[in-house]
């Protein structure tokens, strides 16, 4: 009869790991998570609501075919959310709801603050890079 020690030892040999390597979150998402904690401590309700909404949208996107893995995808989400807030603000203004329009403007301000932190390549830099690449091909 096998002892209990032998059975336990044989179970340990057959351990399989199905986990994949964890991908690192984009730096912008890490900053948003850190700022969420700061907003909680400061009791900044407007910023807190915006950051929670962004994290919620990011979580929902992670369950689709196109999860947010880069700062550029995060920037696209920020711009999309900002455009939705602008449209809502315009509708509120048209209907005489200045209080709700002001709330949307505050949200837009927070979104624009984060969108301005993402570094993007300017058109001139792209032209120089393409021109340099074409020069190498023509010269070779």
TrEMBL record:
Any one Pfam family match given in the protein's UniProt record, by short name: YqeY
InterPro entries given in the database record: Asn/Gln_tRNA_amidoTrase-B-like, YqeY/Aim41, YqeY/Aim41_N
Cellular component GO terms, alphabetical: mitochondrion
Domain of life, per lineage: Eukaryota
Signal peptide feature range: none
Gene Ontology molecular function: carbon-nitrogen ligase activity, with glutamine as amido-N-donor
Family: Belongs to the AIM41 family.
Official protein name in the record: Altered inheritance of mitochondria protein 41
Organism: Lachnellula subtilissima
Lineage summary: Eukaryota, Fungi, Dikarya, Ascomycota, Pezizomycotina
Gene that specifies this protein: AIM41
């Amino acid at each position: 009869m096998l002892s209990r020690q032998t059975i336990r030892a044989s179970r340990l040999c057959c351990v399989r790991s199905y986990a994949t390597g964890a991908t690192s979150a984009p730096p912008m998402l890490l900053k948003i998570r850190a700022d969420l904690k700061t907003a909680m401590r400061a009791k900044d309700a407007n910023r807190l609501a915006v950051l929670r909404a962004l994290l919620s949208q990011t979580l929902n996107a992670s369950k689709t075919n196109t999860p947010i893995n880069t700062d550029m995808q995060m920037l696209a989400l920020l711009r999309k959310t900002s455009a939705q807030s602008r449209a809502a603000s315009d509708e509120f203004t048209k209907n005489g709801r200045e209080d709700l329009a002001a709330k949307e403007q505050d949200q837009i301000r927070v979104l624009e603050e984060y969108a301005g932190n993402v570094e993007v390549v300017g058109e001139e830099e792209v032209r120089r890079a393409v021109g340099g690449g074409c020069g190498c091909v023509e010269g070779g």
